[in-house]
């Protein structure tokens, strides 16, 4: 290997090593989110949803589908992205990554690529599951895929940052457990923010998840709380913020190299 | 005893050193100075043992060469490449077996070793991995998860991982800490085999007999400084002082006349006479007769000898003495 070649072999190794972890923990990483989401559909979509009138011209069950996919995608990408890099730190095997001829960008590509792939696979499984319970139309498949991929990458990056920052399992879980659910629930996954009083509508605009859910839902039913272009811009902004933080981490060796 | 000759940098033996460390310093975030300007050249193909007490800076030095720790000052080159600027080139050449038994508990032996090779940018080579696992008696355990293995087996896995990318330089950080005799023997066999293929091996240890047994050269580090580095045999000769001790049946007031030329000292309130000499004097031409001459002279002077003993410094004594002098 010459001095400055991109270490593709290493990226591949990390990626498949991580994907193998997913196969090994199939029950926890795939079956569990699918069951959870199915429960949401049964309770909100079928049981309660049947008594709720249409929202923006679509049935309530269909309306909540994009939000539910986003909820799972965010949680999965953050936890996969964080555990991937946190685990070697915790066990000490990180020595191998740090002493290998890999740049941190390659380490990042391997771990974030795997975390995002897992998130996407689960997102698609949930979409398929949802189609058993409710009618799904996808008006803009390309935009839907774009929202899905961008969100998966962005939040896997965010997870990677948490994984580097976390010093223990509590810190590792604090964001996916305590921060993501309220943001998702209050981000219009289960309702249109039109239904809220004006004050809470204004507050909702500070919630980044609102933009994800709204844009993603627009790609299905062309109904949105905010302009889809703004949604896309916000995801792009968050992506840039995550990349900048990671750039700083890799330059300084923060919590990686003393 | 002759004064210890400090020679931190060995004269160039013709070939450029495979690892060159110049004025290396490391100050950790909490202000602790782990390395205070270390200079060291490691020769291609040698086995170098770095001795030093816990916290001496051995692991920090290795960690900087391998890329785990950023240096605060100075320069390290491996195969002529700077370890910071050309990290890909230097790290491809190096294999590291860390001190701690850090393993991916839920992975199988073969997967974790194959992963190490990929991480170093090398394509798959199942035949090589098989050979490495066989050499380390791990082949039967290849499909076992690491958490099912004993401590000694995990140590073998770490060595296998370090060898998976065919390094030219192997760092073994305290390889035999908590390791049984069988593994130690297997490990030295692997080390010998590697040396035969031209791999340079650097090991840290605080078991002096280990350094005595296996190393070509020995370096002593204490409190962030390289106190000396020397060929093991030269070191043993140079520093391996011998002492002849004569216990007397009754105390003397002074060294008896006729014995002045023998450099005798009266110690323990006149109860014993001691004679210091270098260990190679006994084997040297004519020097051996010096002891014989001393014996004759002692007899002639009618010195009341009760008992005779000699004592030779081991590497351990040398080590303790060096550390003590600097403390």
UniProtKB/TrEMBL annotation, chain A:
Q: Which chain regions cross the lipid bilayer? A: 26-48, 68-87, 108-130, 142-165, 172-193, 229-250
Q: Which is a Gene Ontology cellular component entry for this protein?
A: ATP-binding cassette (ABC) transporter complex
Q: Where is the ABC transmembrane type-2 domain?
A: 24-253
Q: Which UniProt keywords apply?
A: Cell membrane, Membrane, Transmembrane, Transmembrane helix, Transport
- Does Cell membrane appear among the keywords? yes
Question: What topology does it adopt in the membrane?
Answer: Multi-pass membrane protein
> Has keyword Membrane?
yes
Give the Gene Ontology MF terms in alphabetical order: ABC-type transporter activity
Location comes to: Cell inner membrane; Membrane
Family membership, please give it: Belongs to the ABC-2 integral membrane protein family.
Q: What is this protein called?
A: Transport permease protein
**Source organism per UniProt:** Endobacterium cereale
């Amino acid at each position: 290997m010459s001095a400055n070649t991109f270490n593709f072999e290493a990226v591949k190794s990390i990626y498949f090593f991580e994907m193998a972890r997913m196969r090994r923990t199939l029950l926890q990483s795939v079956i569990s989110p699918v069951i959870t989401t199915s429960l949401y559909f049964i309770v909100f979509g079928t049981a309660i949803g049947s008594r709720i009138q249409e929202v923006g011209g679509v049935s309530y069950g269909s309306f909540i589908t994009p939000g539910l996919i986003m909820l799972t995608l965010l949680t999965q990408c953050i936890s996969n992205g964080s555990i991937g890099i946190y685990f070697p730190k915790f066990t000490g095997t990180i020595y191998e990554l740090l002493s290998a001829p890999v740049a941190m960008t390659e380490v990042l590509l391997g771990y974030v690529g795997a975390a995002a792939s897992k998130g996407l696979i689960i997102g698609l499984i949930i979409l398929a599951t949802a189609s058993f319970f409710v009618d799904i139309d996808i008006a803009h498949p390309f935009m839907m895929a774009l929202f899905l991929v961008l969100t998966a990458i962005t939040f896997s990056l965010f997870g990677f940052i948490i994984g580097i920052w976390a010093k223990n399992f509590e810190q590792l879980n604090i964001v996916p457990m305590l921060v993501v659910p309220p943001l998702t629930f209050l981000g219009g996954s289960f309702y249109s923010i039109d239904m809220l009083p004006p004050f809470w509508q204004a507050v909702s605009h500070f919630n980044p998840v609102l933009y994800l859910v709204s844009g993603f839902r627009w790609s299905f039913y062309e109904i949105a709380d905010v302009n889809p272009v703004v949604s896309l811009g916000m995801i792009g902004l968050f992506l840039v913020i995550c990349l900048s933080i990671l750039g700083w981490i890799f330059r300084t060796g923060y919590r990686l190299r003393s | 005893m002759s004064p210890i000759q400090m020679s931190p940098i060995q004269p160039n033996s013709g070939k450029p050193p495979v690892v060159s460390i110049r004025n290396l310093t490391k100050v950790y975030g909490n202000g602790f100075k782990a390395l205070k300007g270390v200079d060291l050249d490691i020769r291609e193909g040698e086995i170098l043992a770095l001795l030093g007490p816990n916290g001496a800076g051995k692991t920090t030095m290795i960690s900087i060469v391998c890329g785990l720790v950023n240096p605060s000052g100075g320069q390290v080159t491996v195969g002529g490449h700077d370890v910071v600027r050309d990290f890909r080139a230097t790290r491809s050449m190096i294999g590291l077996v860390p001190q701690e038994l850090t393993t991916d508990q839920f992975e199988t032996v073969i997967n974790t070793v194959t992963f190490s090779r990929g991480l170093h940018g090398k394509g798959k080579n199942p035949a090589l991995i098989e050979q490495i696992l066989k050499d380390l008696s791990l082949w039967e355990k290849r499909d076992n998860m690491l958490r099912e293995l004993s401590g000694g087996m995990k140590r073998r896995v770490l060595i296998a991982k370090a060898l998976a990318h065919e390094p030219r330089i192997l760092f073994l950080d305290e390889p035999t800490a908590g390791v049984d005799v069988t593994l130690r023997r297997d490990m030295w066999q692997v080390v010998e085999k590697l040396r035969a293929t031209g791999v340079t091996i650097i090991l840290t240890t605080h078991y002096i007999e280990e350094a005595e047994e296996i190393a070509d050269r020995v370096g002593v580090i204490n409190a962030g400084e390289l106190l000396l580095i020397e060929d093991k045999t030269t070191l043993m000769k140079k520093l391996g002082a011998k002492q002849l001790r004569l216990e007397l049946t009754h105390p003397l007031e002074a060294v008896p006349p006729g014995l002045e030329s023998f450099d005798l000292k009266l110690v323990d309130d006149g109860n014993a006479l001691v004679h210091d000499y270098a260990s190679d004097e006994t084997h040297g031409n004519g020097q051996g007769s010096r002891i014989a001459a001393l014996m004759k002279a002692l007899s002639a002077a009618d010195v009341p000898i009760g008992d005779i003993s000699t004592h030779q410094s081991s590497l351990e004594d040398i080590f303790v003495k060096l550390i003590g002098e600097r403390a």
